[in-house]
Amino acid sequence: MGWETVISTAAGVLATLLGVAVGGWISNRGQSRAWSRSVLADACAALLQEQATTYMALVRWRSKELERVDWAGWNAALARVQLVGSPSIVEAALGLDSAFWRFSAGIRENVDEVGWRQLRDEVEKRRLAFVNAARMQLSPSAATLRRLVGKPEETNQSTL
Q: Is there a domain that residue 93 lies in?
């Protein structure tokens, strides 16, 4: 067996091993991205679900149907987003959290109907900002939403 055969065989083996390694790396990278995206989507969905639950609890607290609001679910969902979200998603989530703080303070301070609507509208605005930040991260080609609910913009629903 000549040197040419040995070199040719070794080069073939080396190329095969290199191909397998690169293919495995690319496949692993794609799976990791898909997993990360799935985890982020789940975290964002959980935050929106807890936002709705906490929002309704605050409305019930305002109308004296609840003695206090349990913030555990909201705080856990917020922590999940902080753990896996990009800076833009985390900032949008913190903006929503900040609006919730003001919303809660307004209830404690017994804000009038005009103030209540302003606080409510701020929560809705921050929720929309969070949804759009999540959409842009999860699907960069997704269009920005202008609103999340079908109610007319000028509706004076003082209870919700």
A: yes
Within a domain: 121: yes
Domain CATH for 115: 1.20.120
Residue 16 lies in a domain: no
| Class of residue 140 by CB neighbours under 10 A (exposed 0-12, middle 13-18, buried 19+) | exposed
Give the separation between CA 133 and CA 24, rounded to whole angstroms.
Answer: 32
Domain span at residue 46 reads: 39-138
Q: How many independent structural domains does the chain possess? A: 1
Q: Report yes or no on 146 lying in a domain.
A: no
43-46 contacts at long range (C-beta below 8 A, 24 or more positions apart): 43/77, 43/80, 43/81, 43/83, 43/84, 43/85, 44/81, 44/85, 44/89, 44/130, 44/134, 44/138, 46/77, 46/80
DSSP string, 132-159: HHHHHHH-TTPPPPS-S--S-TT---S-
pLDDT tens digits, residue range 3-51? Answer: 777 677 766 666 666 676 666 666 656 565 666 788 999 999 999 999 9
